[in-house]
Amino acid sequence: MQKTNYKYFIFIIPILIFSGILFPIINIIITTLKFDPSKNNLSKEPKYSYLILSSDDKVLSKLSRKFEINNNKHKIPFLLKYSFVSAEDKRFLEHNGIDLIGLSRAFISNIKSGYLKEGGSTITQQVARIIFLNNDISFQRKIKEILISLILDFRYSKDQILKLYLNNIYLGSGAYGINEASQVYFGKLINELTLSEIALITGLAPAPSIYSPYENLELAIKNRNQILESMYLDGYISISDRNKALNEKIILNYQSNNNMLNDELLINFIIEETNNKIKEINKYKFLRIKSSINKNWQESGQKISASIKPNNMELALLSIESHTGLIRTMITSKNPSLNEFNRVNSSIRPLGSTFKIITYAAALIDGIKLSDKFEDLPNCWEDYCPKNFSEEYRGEISLIESFKSSSNIVPIKISKKIGIKKVINLANAFGLGYKQKFEEVSSLAIGSYGDNLLNITNAYSVINSNGEIYEPSTLEKVETFNGKSIWENKFISKKILDIKVNNNLKKLLGQSVADGTGIAASIKGEKIYGKTGTSDGNRDLWFIGSIKNLTTGVWLGFDENKESNLSSGNAAYLWKKFITKIFNLNIKQ
After folding, report:
1. Rg for the chain (alpha carbons), in Å?
2. Could you tell me which residues come within 8 angstroms of residue 89 by beta carbon, excluding any fewer than 6 positions away?
3. Comparing C-alpha atoms, which of 130, 177, 124, 178 is closest to residue 155?
4. How far, CA to CA in Å, does 5 sit from each of 97, 101, 125, 141, 154?
5. By three-state DSSP, how is residue 583 classified?
6. What is the band of 389 on the pLDDT scale with cuts at 50, 70, 90?
7. Which residues of 326-338 are buried (b: 16+ CB within 10 A; e: fewer)?
8. Are 445 and 356 in contact (CB under 8 A)?
9. Which of 105, 54, 476 has its CA nearest to residue 260?
10. Please, are residues 321 and 297 in contact by the beta-carbon 8 Å criterion?
C-alpha cells in the first residue's frame, strides 16, 4: 500500500468547494472505498489462459487470462510493465495518483485556452476514468477523477493499479485489456509477445483508432519506434534490445501462417462447454483445449456462407460426426466478425417439415408399415385446415410416397391414429421440445413448433448412427499446460431406435433426396439421407442431411422473421456445395 501525501487533499478540497460539487463527490468516495479490485472484470473471459486447437491440432484461438489483482505471484512481465510506464506515465512509481507537475501544466494550459485542452492524466487517473467515470470533457469530471485517483493510490499498490489498467484499457479492434490486444493483433499469449510487439500495442493507448496497425501500419510502427526510444532513454532496455526491436518486422495476426478463427461466438461456445465439463475449473491457470472443429471445413463453410444472397439474409450451418456426436463445423453467421448472435443454438425457429421424420418414426414404432396407405386429401380437424405446400393432393398414397412429397395431411392423420402424445415423447427422446415446450396440437406433427439447428441436426444424426443418440460436443479433450489430462470425451450414447425402424427411416430420407423435395442436395454416386423444411411465408428454410459419417444441418432466413422469395431447395443446394467442397466431390450431375 502506498503512503499518500495529504497536501494533495488540501489542494483538492478548495477546488471541490469552489466548483460546487462537494456533495455529489461523497457518493463517488463511498463507491471507490467499496470497490473490490479482485471482482473487477469488465468482460466475461475465463479466469484461465487457454489454447484452443482444431481436431488436427491447428490453432483456433489463444488468450491470456486477465491479471489477478490480489495475486502477487501473477506478475506483469517486465517489458510490458515498463513499456506502459515509460510511454504513459513516467512518474507512475513516484507520484500519489496524480502528477502535480503534469496536472499544473495542463491546468494552466486549460485556463489560458478557456476549455479542457490537456488532460495531464496519470495511469491511476485513467483507471479512475475507465472504472468509475466516463470520457466527458468537463472540469467536474476531472475533479472527480483526481479524487478517485488519490483514494486508489492510498488503498492499492502500484502493481494492483497497473493490473487494473492493463486489464481494462481499450486498445482498439474490440480489444479490452492487454490480453485481448495480444490475441487480436498478434494471435499470441502475453508472455509470447516480443519487445517490438509490446511497444506497438502500448502505442495504441492514446488513440487506438488512429494508431491501429490494421488502419495505418506505417503510423503504428512510427509510434512503436518512439516508445522503444523512450524505454531506452529511461533505462529499461539496452541499445541492442532497442535496435533489434526496431528492425523486427511486424507480422499481424491475419498475416501469420497459422491465423486464428475470427468467430468469437464459436470460441465462446467451446469455452462455455469447457467450463461446464471441468470440475473446479477455477483452480486451473492454463488449459489446452482440443476441440472437435475441423478448421479447413470451418473456413470452407464460412466462405460459402458469405456468398448467400440477399445480403441481409442470415445463415447457420452445423456438422456433427454421427457416430461420436462431435461437432466438426459450426457456422453461426454469414459474417462472424460482426456477429453477436449464435443462430446455431440460440435461434428458436419453426422446424417445418424437418420435424416430420419424428412423426413418421413414431408411426413405424407403432407398427405402421412403409407400404400402408393414407388419404392425402384436404381435411380439417375442428377449425384447423392445413394445406399441402404445393396445394397438390395425391389421394390414397403409401407412407413412403407421402414423405417423399412432404404431405402435410398424412403426418397429421398419423398423429391422430397413434396419438400425438407418442410423437411428443419420441421427440423428447431425440432431444427436441425443450427449447420450446411441445403441446398436444395437430400442427405439431408437421413442425409448427420451434427448436434450434443444433438439436434438429443431432436428431437426424441419430438416424445416421443406427439409432444411437450422442450428446453433441465441440470437445475432444482438455489438458493442462504440461499435457496432463483433465477431461476426455468418452462418446457415451443411448439407443433410442431399433435397427429395423432406423433402416426404414433411412429409406424415407433417401427417397426424399433421390426424387423428392430434397433433390437439390443429391450428389451423383453418393448415398444421402435428408429432408427439407419450410415455415409459413418461406421465413425459415431448412435442410438436414447425412452423408458418410456426417450429418449437416443448414438454416436460412431473416433475423427479423421476414418472408423470403427463396425455397428450402436453396438450403439443400447450399448443403450440397458445402459437402462437395469438404469431401472433394464433383458437384456436377
Report:
1. 30
2. 99, 122, 123, 124
3. 124
4. 10, 15, 16, 22, 9
5. coil
6. confident
7. bbbbbbbbbebee
8. yes
9. 54
10. no
**Region 334-355 average pLDDT:** 94
Report d(CA 443, CA 429) in Å as an integer: 20
**Helix and strand counts by DSSP (H, E) for the chain:** 21, 16
Which amino acid is residue 311, in one-letter code?
Answer: N
Q: Do domains 7-255 and 350-451 have the same CATH topology?
A: no
The burial class, CB within 10 Å (0-12 / 13-18 / 19+), for 20 is exposed
Provide the pLDDT confidence category of residue 22 given band limits of 50, 70 and 90: low
Please report which confidence band the pLDDT of residue 6 belongs to, taking 50, 70 and 90 as the band edges. Answer: low
Check: CB of residue 198 under 8 Å from CB of residue 79.
Answer: yes
Task: Check if the beta carbon of residue 341 is closer than 8 Å to that of residue 372.
Answer: no
- Measured from the Cβ of residue 136, the count of other Cβ atoms closer than 10 Å reads 11
Instruction: Please state which of the four CATH numbers 3.30.565.10, 3.40.710.10, 3.40.50.2020, 3.30.450.40 is assigned to the domain occupying 350-451.
Output: 3.40.710.10
Closest CA to 491 of 507, 523, 469, 524: 469
Residues 518, 354: Cα–Cα separation, whole Å: 11
Average pLDDT for residues 11-36, to the nearest whole number? 63
For the stretch 98-124, pLDDT in tens is 887 766 766 666 565 554 444 568 999
| Spatial contact of 393 and 402, defined as CB atoms under 8 Å apart | no
What are residue 545's DSSP bridge partners? 530, 552
* Cis status, amide bond into 213, omega within 30 of 0: no
Q: How many other C-beta atoms lie within 10 A of the C-beta of residue 199? A: 30
Q: Considering the domain 264-347+468-500+519-589, what is its CATH architecture?
A: 3-Layer(aba) Sandwich (3.40)
Q: Give the span between the Cα atoms of 561 and 537, in whole angstroms.
A: 10
**Side-chain half-sphere CA neighbours of 182 within 13 A:** 21
Total Cβ atoms within 10 A of residue 259: 14
- What ranges do the domains of the chain cover? 7-255, 264-347+468-500+519-589, 350-451
- Write the CB contacts of 183 (distance below 8 Å, at least 6 apart in sequence): 61, 62, 63, 64, 175, 253, 260
CB 453 within 8 A of CB 440: no
Q: Which class in CATH covers the domain with range 7-255?
A: mainly alpha
> What confidence category does residue 589 fall into, taking pLDDT thresholds of 50, 70 and 90?
very low
Residue 476 phi, psi dihedral angles, 5° rounding = -100, -50
